[in-house]
Design a protein that fits this description.
CATH architecture of the largest domain: Alpha-Beta Complex
Largest sheet: 5 strands, antiparallel
Helix content: 25-40%
Number of strands: 14
Radius of gyration: 19 Å
Strand content: 15-25%
Oligomer: single chain
CATH superfamily of the largest domain: DNA primase, PRIM domain
CATH class of the largest domain: Alpha Beta
């Protein structure tokens, strides 16, 4: 098995020929290559955030498990943090990222806060989850309505595909608000969306009673996570949760963005999610609205 030197650390890679996505022939070696190519773009979004991963030791068609606690056998150079009794991994560098991928990690779910600001969410997120038979096209329709609402509120949102059928719209926030505020913002937007499109938008939590596109505002909370930007997903096509522009969203489809295609896209367009790192928006102008939600 090959051993690579990265960032002054030795990392032994295993089972590089293992098929992680058998339907499209993507191996663990391909997945490691994807993250090596993407690390410079990925790490600013994931660094300093307690990380939950989903591991697929036998590929995405096999059994999987969620991992919050850092394994005891982790190399000593893997940075960790303790939050609410859990010893999380911090994906602060490329060597840690590749070590997790070598362990079979496919999905990455970073916390919505950094360890330096645990009470302050970095963003509010509007999670649009279409209920079958609705699909991605319905989520796009609601996302465009959401953009109108955000503009009316004087806010900017940044969309990404979930990698499945949904869309996530991030509203980056100044570090002046707690999770009650980010939750209230997402809930208020959800109610506004429902008023605009009552036949299409639902806030119903029970899946059996749900139809249309579900606005899951409850994803805003200190114990909640969203699949990280640029994280692969365990779909048959090896799709990736990928930022898109508002202009291209009507013509986009999750199958456009995969482990094979996203690195070239980012080389050409850059990181479309970069503003989420610095566009820290204030909410004083709409706090009275949120307090009524």
């Amino acid at each position: 098995m090959p051993t690579i030197e990265i960032e002054g650390r030795s990392l032994r890679l295993t089972n590089l020929d293992k098929l992680m996505w058998p339907d499209v022939g993507i191996t663990k070696g391909d997945l490691l290559r994807y993250h090596a190519l993407m690390a410079e773009v990925i790490l600013p979004h994931w660094r300093g955030r307690p990380m939950t991963v989903t591991r697929y030791p036998d590929g995405v068609g096999g059994e999987y498990f969620y991992q919050k606690n850092c394994p005891l056998a982790a190399p000593p150079w893997v940075e960790r943090c303790t939050h609410e009794g859990v010893n999380y991994v911090l994906v602060n560098d490329t060597s840690t990222l590749l070590w997790l991928v070598n362990q079979g990690a496919v999905e990455f779910h970073p916390a919505e806060f950094t360890i330096s600001g645990r009470s302050a969410p970095s963003w509010a997120v509007i999670d649009l989850d279409p209920t079958p038979p609705c699909g991605f096209e319905a989520a796009v329709e609601v996302a465009l309505l959401c953009r109108q609402i955000l503009l009316e509120l004087g806010l900017r949102g940044y969309p990404k595909t979930s990698g499945a059928a949904g869309i996530h719209i991030y509203i980056p926030l100044a570090p002046a608000y707690d999770f009650t505020v980010s939750l209230s913002l997402a809930k208020a937007v959800g109610f506004m969306l429902q008023r605009k499109a009552p036949q299409l938008v639902t806030l119903e939590r029970l899946v059996r009673r749900r139809s249309g596109v579900y606005v899951d505002y409850l994803q805003n909370g200190p114990s909640r996570t969203m699949v990280g930007v640029y994280s692969p997903r365990p779909t048959a096509a090896a799709t990736v949760s990928t930022p898109v522009t508002w202009d291209e969203l009507p013509e986009a489809h999750p199958s456009d963005f995969t482990v094979r295609t996203v690195p070239a896209r980012v080389r050409g367009l850059g990181d479309l999610f970069a503003p989420v790192l610095w566009d820290h928006q204030t909410l004083e102008h709409i706090l009275p609205v949120l307090q009524r939600v």
